[in-house]
Prior knowledge:
Elements: E1 3-6, H1 14-26, E2 34-38, H2 42-46, E3 53-57, E4 72-75, H3 78-91, E5 95-99, H4 109-116, E6 120-123, H5 126-132, E7 139-141, H6 157-163, E8 167-172, H7 177-180, H8 182-189, E9 195-200, H9 206-212, E10 219-223, H10 228-234, E11 237-240, H11 249-256, E12 260-264, H12 269-272, E13 280-282, H13 285-296, H14 299-313, H15 318-333
Parallel strand pairs: 1-2, 1-4, 2-3, 4-5, 5-6, 6-7, 8-9, 8-11, 9-10, 11-12, 12-13
Helix pairs in contact: 1-15, 11-14
Amino acid sequence: MNILHVNxxxxxxGGERQTELLIRALFPYxxxxxxxxxxxxxxxxxxxxxxITTYPIKNSFKKWWKxxxxxxxxxxxxxxxxxxxxxxxLYKTPYLIxxxxxxxxxxxxxxxxxxxxxxxxxxxxxxxxxxLSTFNTNHQIIPSACCPISPLSTPNNDIxxxxxSRTIIGHIGALIDKHKGQSRLIKIVKNHPEWVLVLVGEGxxxxxxxxxxAGADNIRFVGxxxxxxxxxxxxxxxxxxSRYEGLGSTIIDAMQMSKAIVASNVGGIPDLIxxxxxxxxxxxxxxxxxxxxxxxxxxxxxxxLSTAAQQTSERYxxxxxxxxxxxxxxxxxxxxxxxxxxxxxxxxxxxxxxxxNPK
Length: 359
């Protein structure tokens, strides 16, 4: 079976990380995987150690009308979905689309054709799957995955020294406030000198967010770093105040690291977090502040929630994700398939170096 993955994103965020994880986890079973990506795609570099065929393209698809040896096209983001739809119109190669965001799709002719002709639609969460069901009867949920990382990873000494005895509240995500909602955290933490806030990630709103945090000596912007894991290990509380979210794979990483989590009650996040059991869900800024206070002042609560969170993360491994996609591929081709034990062959490259590193 030859799978042609399509990801035309320019950067390397959650969707690209998940594409990498899937290709690696499938590799022992599907070594003939291929990837269509942009010429300067970080994803191409991330996968350079695997002997898979990559087809880098610029901004034109003209040279891509030549047929490629593929049994299935797997589109991992919106531009890739359109590419797969065009390719299918020429060569009738079946395609599936993984949709990762919970933005409403307009019910227009373009979307009805693109999503309706797909062999299968995959959503990361219940809320995405519900929307996809209006376009295609063949749809299913396959959540994102985390990397196999150790909860005993060494915390960042610089952050620990800077924080001292103060509670460390951490966030990992692209600095795009209309999506990730970092301004909500900044406004709250500025009024709590007994806490520190560590923001890991880069993005278009950094200057604006730094201006909002001006004068506060308990807020630090780390920016882009390859050492995301040590920062995550340093956090006492992981805060994820997104304004919308398809699922939130970074939450799964925090769960695996046994972190107490506060997150927005939006999108697919409630698929991961059950309020009061393995984390806290919030709707308003006042609820966010109250949840942070509860966790900061109650170590026993942090331990209880973080222990349950770590157990939850065991249901979201790359191996499990790959098994579900492999079954999906076989179903599309009409081939009987028994679930493979992908875990025992999982490529070791997907260790601690592949954790989310948002730009």
